[in-house]
Known about the structure:
- α1 packs parallel to α3 (86-105), α5 (156-164) packs across α6 (166-175) and α9 (213-225) packs antiparallel against α10 (231-245).
- 36% of the residues are buried.
- The protein folds into 2 domains: 14-209, 2-enoyl-CoA Hydratase, Chain A, domain 1, CATH 3.90.226.10; 213-259, Lyase 2-enoyl-coa Hydratase, Chain  A, domain 2 (Orthogonal Bundle).
- It starts with 13 loop residues before the first strand and ends in a 10-residue tail after the last helix.
- It has helices at 37-50, 74-81, 86-105, 121-128, 156-164, 166-175, 181-187, 197-209, 213-225, 231-245, 249-259, and strands at residues 14-18, 21-26, 58-63, 110-114, 117-119, 131-134, 139-141, 178-180, 192-193.
- It has 269 residues and is α/β, with parallel strands linked by helices.
- It contains 11 helices and 9 strands.
Amino acid sequence: MTFDPVKFEPQHFQWKFENGIATITLNRPERKNPLTFDSYDELRATFYELDHNYAVKVVVIRGAGGNFCSGGDVHEIIGPLTKMNSAGLLRFTRMTGDLVRAMRHCPQPIIAAVEGVCAGAGAILAMASDIRFGQPGCRTAFLFSRVGLSGADMGACAVLPRIIGHGRASELLFTGRDMTAEEGLAWGFYNRVVEDVLAESYALAGALAKGPSIAYAITKRQLDCESNMTVDQALEAEARVQARCMETNDFRRAYEAFANKRQPEFRGD
Length: 269
């Protein structure tokens, strides 16, 4: 069945789709929106579906009730994990990592609107997003070491140093301490720290939804893959993908609009 963002009704989070913008709301506010086995799996499946859906232009991910996400549910995930055998544990860790893979592979820009608590797997969801806005006072913690686990969880050792640098990532992953909103902004984890993160997120999402979605998808992909390339390899890769962009109707329409002193209209073709 084809994924229909208008009719989609997930079971384990809230979904809203309007004007090309999809909003994912983690909705267990009484527990600060922790994840469960089922919500992990449904989020992963949803982001994989978005890889093939061009009606959705931008994704905003947020939490209900003034917090982003407190991580894996202590009772519904952490407890059961202590009783699993090795094969079951590996299935779980591969599944959670696959959620990050799905977020990075989907072509849409993902904006995280972070309020309050953003911890554990919640911090990973923010990390795996393309753009992050934080609210003053929000607390972001990669707290795996505080429960006897390594910081090597869901790609954190690969992705976090690329965002904030190796030394800062090492400190956060070793100690599990809170990164303040001010630190997150100064270190580049947060693009901006603002009182109304939802308004900021939707203002940017609205602008991106009107933009050249093919060009954005290519930009997102190259930002990920070029970190493993030499400069020469990156130059060749960018030459190829930019040439592809130059074949799109969006590019031709943009030229005609600029030549006639009009705003371009992007249609994603």
